[in-house]
């Protein structure tokens, strides 16, 4: 039995279950097929009933929607697609009245090319103050016809686009780590820094409880913007290259991409920490920083920086007891060393839903945008079974957990989207080679009846919903013993009653190599990642992700028990 350290602190975010709402796909109150803020407000009582502590809203700001709102044209306003600032006020008040905190998304690496700041930069021309706010460079080659360096966009293709001067001649190039409609800021500009402080204050003044910070590892680029070719198997968002697993490469091997995880980002977060600290109550900054290993990612949550970072190492861990035990230990150790809680996450709007991902095999294991032509589509029943077991394990762990809308219904990835419906820029920029992320963004089913399964007051939904989702609709699961929704509700209730989120992990041995078993206070958790059944220890069963046969836990299942000698 080994013990892991407990991090202290009473701030709400240390133990919170935070539910990600993807506004386009949660609930549509005006019947246009696109989710909106009024739709969210109307559904909040059902989230209260689920038992979450906070919601994180993906962007709902003014945007041409070239990257589903992560291309912001006005950081301080609501896109008419989603409603108005007044609708936001209503949403936030409704949430707060229900005891639910509200976290909003901030996108500081880039704006939309429609943003007034970028348009002013284009108009002002080379060498201007306005251009210095973004990353413009002259091209290489005799006439500047070659991009300034060899960087590639995360979404595929070049990370540079050439501008056209007002007289119609080709001009400078601008950097976009993502879509060409998402120009990267230059964070060396004090003006940019001041604008973002003002954006934070705008939302803090309105009462938000914190921010999820988009691409929080990308804002600073290495001086001189040197050429860089990422390893072929490396994650495009900057996680460790596959070679990190090879001999000779250690956890200390530095990340070399000149656009990810540069030291200078930390100064920005120390500054933002102060901006939040000037407000009463506990406000949270949560980093989306795809940085490996976890000991490096923990730098984002040092005491004077951000408060939480998404644990993508956990998300990327396969359903395998030994690997899970090791990533759990590593997470508690790395975050604990800087006094931060670990977070846990299995799904979000950028990855294949875990009810499908956990049943992927072989070449598809990376799960990069599965679609209809993927070899060996995941087994839906096995995926759901593993997802329930994996979620039951995650929700027992000390720290803060993130849920992605629809996972509480056991939704799988939508793999049969027609090509014409796809909207992810990845699909367009790779000419269909990568399916992108639309399959995890399909509007969620609330009711089995009706064209849009209760997602919309009308019949439409912006991405088509698989017809078999009728059976997974919330109204088919609510109050139904054994449903995935009831499993989540029970887990969240027990997690609170037994203070699991502020507990510790003490591994228990003797269950075999395919079982991760541990004690957290007065609860024993047994997660069986193998196929053979295992005998449960003594103690009342509090929760089980599958039916038990007597006191045996079947394969691909997790149980929680009241510890015998507690
Ligand atoms: C983040 C978001 C993703 C977006 C990208 C660019 O990774 O989660 O959805 O496309 O940043 O803003």
How many structural units, i.e. domains? Answer: 3
Strand content: 5-15%
Estimate the global geometry from the Cα principal axes: globular
Q: Termini separation (Å)?
A: 16 Å
At CATH level 3, the topology of the largest domain is: TIM Barrel
CATH architecture of the largest domain: Alpha-Beta Barrel
Let me know the largest β-sheet: 8 strands, parallel
Structural category: alpha/beta
* Distinct ligand kinds: alpha-D-glucopyranose
Keywords: Hydrolase
Family: Belongs to the glycosyl hydrolase 13 family.
Pfam families: Alpha-amylase
Organism: Cryobacterium glaciale
Give a concise summary.
This is Glycoside hydrolase family 13 protein. The chain is α/β, with parallel strands linked by helices.
Task: Describe the structure in your own words.
With 566 residues, the protein is of the alpha/beta class. The protein folds into three domains: 15-111 and 191-222 and 260-484, TIM Barrel; 116-175, Oligo-1,6-glucosidase, Domain 2 (Oligo-1,6-glucosidase, domain 2), CATH 3.90.400; 505-563, Immunoglobulin-like, CATH 2.60.40.1180. The protein contains 13 helices and 20 strands. Strands 11-10-9-5-2-1-13-12 form an eight-stranded parallel β-sheet. The chain has a five-stranded antiparallel β-sheet with strand order 14-15-16-20-18, covered by helices on one side. Strand 7 (160-164) and strand 8 (170-175) form a beta hairpin. The two termini are 16 Å apart. Alpha-D-glucopyranose (GLC) binds next to loops. One of its GO terms (molecular function) is alpha-amylase activity. InterPro entries: GH, GH13_cat_dom, O16G_dom_2. This is Glycoside hydrolase family 13 protein.
